Amino acid sequence: MKIRQTAIFSAVLLAALVFLFPFYVALLMALKTPKETFDSFYGLPSSLNMANFASAWSASNYPSAMLNSFLITAISITLIIFVSALAGYSIARRNKPFYNFIFIVFLAGLVVPFQITMLPLYKLGKDLGLLNTHWGIALIYGGFGVQMGVLFYAGFIRAISTEIEEAAKIDGCSTPGIFIRIIMPLLKPVTATVLVLNALFIWNDFLLPLLYLQDKAYRTIPLQQYFFFGQYSSDLNLAFAYAVMGMIPIIAFFLLMQKYIIKGIAAGAVKG
Q1: Which range, 68-82, 91-105, 255-269, has the best average confidence (pLDDT)?
Q2: Residue 85 to residue 68: CA distance in whole angstroms
Q3: Domain spans of the chain, in order of start
Q4: Looking at residues 14-25, what average pLDDT do you find?
Q5: How far apart are CA 261 and CA 196, in angstroms?
């Protein structure tokens, strides 16, 4: 038994080290000077060079990029949760061919590669004047996010007993009232899961902002970091310092929300 526990612990520790290694490299590079980086890429710095963070802050207009990332992430997540919860509730509670077909349409979107829709979405966004706007790219993120969101919400709502809703109807509560007052509070675990998964993806995404946010004023944190690498030169230390600053908000958000995800997993394990 001890040998098995030791093997499991060793495997988990090794996996943790593998996942933490990129963060270690990023932090290491952010604290080194260009000379120290050239002399030894993985070597420890002789001193903590905090000047890289100040230089990256001023050179890239970090507050503006962070505000853009925050607005796009917040708008996208709001759309995803709102649409996914309503659609998931309708699909789960109305077992009719039309709603089953709509559910299949949502699921079909999961198997369509983004590369196929990339150019049509760009052309559509250009025709509608949605390029270089927070709402334009948020709509695209919302469209992709609701596909998985509907799957999560529909599955979770199907596990909730309908007797609660029937009792509320007898007391005179309308369908919107049942959804807002009864169903939504029960959806906190799955909402937290959808929130965190989409926030991590949207905050760290690079491709969509590169395509749809060509104006400098709308650059997000990952996109702004890209411009530290020029055609003939690049500043690795500033780029990694900027990456560390960009990771801090989303890591703090994940640590704040992880307890809700754990509660959701525990609730799902004992449900029924």
Answers
A1: 68-82
A2: 26
A3: 61-270
A4: 85
A5: 8
Quickly count: other Cβ atoms within 10 Å of residue 26's Cβ.
Answer: 18
Structure tokens belonging to residue 79: 């759309």
CB 53 within 8 A of CB 241: yes
Residue 207: how many CA atoms within 13 Å on its side-chain side?
Answer: 9
**pTM for this predicted structure:** 0.83
State both tokens at 99.
């709603």
Quick one: CA dihedral 167, 172, 175, 180, positive or negative? negative
Element (H, E) at 120: helix 114-127
What is the amino acid identity at position 72? I
Looking at residue 131, the DSSP 8-state letter turns out to be T
Instruction: Identify residue 160 by its one-letter amino acid code.
Output: I
Topology annotation, domain 61-270: MetI-like fold (1.10.3720)
Backbone angles phi, psi at 87, to 5 degrees: -65, -40
